[in-house]
Amino acid sequence: MDQMNLPNGLPFMKMHGAGNDFVVIDSRGRAGAMVTPALAKALGDRNRGVGFDQLAEIRDGAAGADFTLDFWNSDGSRAGACGNATRCVSDYVMRGLGLDAVSLITARGGLSAVRTADGRVSVNMGAPQLDWQAVPVAQDVDLMHLPLLGDPVAVGMGNPHCVLFVDDAEAVDVAGLGPRYEHDPLFPQRTNVEFASLIGPDHLRMRVWERGTGITLACGSGACATAVAAHLRGLTGRRVTLDLDGGVLEIDWREDGVWMTGPVAHVFDGWLSPAFLAAHT
């Protein structure tokens, strides 16, 4: 998008990573952030707006980072992390800067991303949060065996996750069960919910309910949390392949953080009309 020749309105991009879809707004060079809760909610409406699983706003970098990234859910609430959007935006920024690696700042802190030899993008999502106050949950409980139906695991990845290991992820009523866990009082900030089954050595099938959004085809931070939980439960090693509804993600829990690798796609560019902006800002 040519930031020097903007007509009235606001440019945006539509991207997806393994079917996890995003609206991306590039606000670099502007005085401040453009996205408000009202605008995020309006844009997230798939009938009256654009529709997305998450919205990502790119802002100028700080503390030596190449850029800053803010995330929003489709209900207008803020999201602390979004791994697939981070990979997609990192790919866009790397192409613009002519680089194969970038650093960025999110609510999670400082992250880094690199382009792999096969064209995919890897992002270091940081160390998992395995303390009850950091996830967070409402009280000091065993995070590896939460006192909830299904014996789930709680993992923080800059946002809270509730991971349930089931016999067959395909058979789970994600739409019915997801909201129950999302809004359980044990999670004061609500939670993302993952249902995973072991389908081979270091290979999981995962389906997801994202807080503030609902069922999505993929969730990067959820894939990271699920891989961490699976290793801590003794189900897998530290390198795990996850089959999600929208594609395949590879997770590698290293000493420096949890790395996630997968495909990225820049689908189209568009413009939000002045009338739409005036009605929702």
Please supply descriptive tags for the structure shown above.
2 domains, Diaminopimelate Epimerase, Chain A, domain 1, alpha+beta, 38% strand, 17-stranded mixed β-sheet, 281 residues, 5 helices, globular
Describe the secondary structure blueprint for this structure:
Elements: E1 10-17, E2 20-26, H1 37-44, E3 54-60, E4 67-73, E5 78-79, H2 83-97, E6 101-106, E7 109-115, E8 121-124, E9 153-156, E10 160-165, H3 174-182, E11 192-200, E12 203-210, E13 214-216, H4 220-232, E14 239-244, E15 247-254, E16 257-262, E17 265-272, H5 274-280
Describe it for me?
The chain starts with 9 loop residues before the first strand and ends with a helix. The radius of gyration is 18 Å and the shape is globular. The protein has a 17-stranded mixed sheet that branches. It folds into two domains: 10-125 and 264-280, Diaminopimelate Epimerase, Chain A, domain 1 (Roll), CATH 3.10.310; 153-255, Diaminopimelate Epimerase, Chain A, domain 1 (Roll). It has helices at 37-44, 83-97, 174-182, 220-232, 274-280, and strands spanning 10-17, 20-26, 54-60, 67-73, 78-79, 101-106, 109-115, 121-124, 153-156, 160-165, 192-200, 203-210, 214-216, 239-244, 247-254, 257-262, 265-272. The longest helix has 15 residues, at 83-97. With 281 residues, it is of the alpha+beta class. The chain is built from five helices and 17 strands.
